[in-house]
Amino acid sequence: MHPYTQGRWRNPANPNAPGSSRNPPPQPSVFGALPDPYRSRAPKPALIPFTFTSFRPNVLNCTVTGPQSRVYFRITTDTPTVGYTVFFDSAGQPVTIIEWRNHPVVEIRGILSKRSTSDWLPLSQNGSHRQMEALGKHFVWVPGGEYIFLYAAGVGQPQVYAQVSRAEDSVTLELTAEAIQIGLLEICVAATFLLQCGKSID
């Protein structure tokens, strides 16, 4: 199933798809469908923005810039190899590869071994969130309002690690300093791309 049509996840690449509209109707909070810790949001920490921009013509081919407009990643699709998306770091080295099969697979160099995107970012049964395993920890991506939030999974006060928003010609991933310190930058860039690329990842 398409990642945006389940649980009314908006599909920015195809506004005519189910669950998509220019002005979607108000929706009930997804927090009510999650375990108790996700119903109340923790105080928002300072966030560091990374912007997917310079679309050619969309996020499938773009540049990711961070603080001081520094280029952190360049993302290319079908170049040089058809059927692949490759993320290159600032030194021009490939760090993330996505192979677009019937069931796409993703690999992040030194971080995530090759696996299907549906296994790495599985959609919950009720379509309210996606799970993610990274660095030996469990996280959840939860859409709420104009954002998709990344929380640490588990009990206690929910901790926000990142949030994703979208404009007409850009996508913004905002990370906490802690998220960057523990090594979530490459992981969250890859996850953000998969959640916003408009392709089926299931």
TrEMBL record:
Superkingdom in the source lineage: Eukaryota
Boundaries of every DUF6593 domain copy: 58-167
Pfam families for the chain: DUF6593
Compositional bias (Polar residues): 13-22
Region described as Disordered: spans on this chain: 1-36
Protein known as: DUF6593 domain-containing protein
Protein source organism: Mycena venus
